[in-house]
Amino acid sequence: MMFPVVQRLIDAVNAHDLDALTATFAEDFTSSWPAHPARSFDGPGPVRKNWEFIFAQFPDIRIAVTGSAVSADEFWGEFHYVRPGAADMRGVIVIKVRGDEIVESRFYMEEVDDAAVPHPMPGVRAERSTPR
Asked: 1, 67, 97, 119: most buried, per Cβ within 10 A?
């Protein structure tokens, strides 16, 4: 299940429709990036500015939800951003809804590594283990 406003947001992003995209956000909207606090902002104006930049940089960007869970007023979605010419992004976005508006989002998104990189924690293997 997905809140209708979240589906409208995804459709607007994939259509590159800034007006429809911006219309999904409440005036008191807040966006936070817990792992990158300097990226946080408030209000639908910065949302529009952000997506104007993204659409200019990645004119063929598409997003999809690959998994999700819903509570009374929150949508937890695993998102995949396909950015031709650049690294894809994957991660979780927690979207809080009030009525038919998005009032809060928390982003846990990262660029997908295009090659194997050493694991940042000592003693942890980078390769995926397969069950036997």
From this structure: 97
Q: How many CB atoms lie within 10 A of CB 31?
A: 20
Q: How far apart, in whole angstroms, are the C-alpha atoms of residue 105 and residue 34?
A: 11
Instruction: Write down the pTM of the prediction.
Output: 0.85
- Pairing mode, if any, of strands 74-82 and 89-98? antiparallel
Task: Specify the number of domains making up the chain.
Answer: 1
Q: How far apart are CA 47 and CA 104, in angstroms?
A: 12
**Has residue 53 been placed in a domain?**
yes
How confident is the model over 16-38, as pLDDT tens digits?
A: 999 999 999 999 999 999 999 99
105 is a domain residue: yes
- If DSSP codes are grouped into helix, strand and coil, which group holds residue 34? coil
pLDDT, mean over the chain: 90
> d(Cα 47, Cα 83) in Å, to the nearest integer?
18
Examine the pLDDT at 129 and tell me if it is beyond 50: no
Q: How many CB atoms lie within 10 A of CB 108?
A: 16
We report the CATH number of the domain holding residue 30 as 3.10.450.50
